[in-house]
Amino acid sequence: MQDLNWRNTDQFLMPVSKEVSAKRMYDLYPTLKIEDGKVQEGFESLALQLKDEKQLVIDGYIGVFFNDFRENLDAEFRKLGKKASWQSVDEALRPEELIDQMIEPFLGGDDPIFGKRTTLQLADFYEAAKRQSMKPEPQADISILLGCGATLAGWNGLFLYIDLPKNELQFRARAKAATNLGASQLIDIKHMYKRYYFIDWVVLNRYKQQILSTIDIIVDGQRPD
Predict the structure, then answer these.
(1) Taking the model in full, what pTM does it have?
(2) Confidence of residue 111 (pLDDT cuts 50, 70, 90)
(3) Contact of 31 with 18, CB cutoff 8 Å
(4) Is 162 a domain residue?
(5) Strand, helix or coil at 221?
(6) Is 3 inside any structural domain?
(7) Deepest in the core among 23, 39, 84, 133, taking most CB within 10 A?
(8) With 60 as the cut, is the pLDDT of residue 1 above it?
(9) What is the pLDDT of residues 166-210, one digit of tens each?
(10) Where is 162: in which H helix or E strand?
(11) Domain CATH for 153
């Protein structure tokens, strides 16, 4: 077991690289061959690739450690002499009590299991006026909008999406390192899972499908470093 305080599980992280499995054998981590140079590792290489951009939109799945991502990438930008202006789309979230009221009809009340898959869209979790008021900082070398749903602000910058598998999200939830969409506080883990299933995953999978063709760079968010 890996001694990581941000994930609670006996399952190891998916390997960075692996040998091709024998044919006709079950493979827990199937692989595809892609062109050389299409995958890079680490914040240093990412900063080098982004250093000449004027605007960046960094979106991603629930459970991504956006604050850590910001600190690591900003440190690399500073090494390159770049001053980045950061904004978080979380500042445009609707008040938490209104979000709770909005999702309540889909959660099945006190039933421990049953609910309804939500019909909500990700935009419903944010105040449109606040989203629209978020503008790039003209004096900065790079203006960056960060967070789950960042593309909803309508910026025209290069678009990064930080993805996270659902199993890793659940391991982070167990470790009390992740919350639900629009929630600032941790709740009972069973209720968190239920809210993920009927609300968060439905909303975010639908959103990801809508934006997938516009993503410039996909970041694997399983390893915070």
Answers:
(1) 0.89
(2) confident
(3) yes
(4) yes
(5) coil
(6) no
(7) 84
(8) no
(9) 999 999 999 999 999 999 888 888 999 999 999 999 999 999 999
(10) strand 158-163
(11) 3.40.50.300
